[in-house]
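Practice problem: predict the structure.
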Amino acid sequence: MNNYNGYNREPREMHKVTCADCGNETEVPFKPDGERPVYCSDCYQKRKPKRY
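Answer:
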């Protein structure tokens, strides 16, 4: 049974990628389409717009 509240979910399939910013290898929970850059969590945090 897959609930949307975060419990009883199957583990997500992870995909190995190279960060488009720093070049480190990381894993993401989606299959990259090859057209958009993919970032590691550190680089993503640096790039995302600040919330006010």
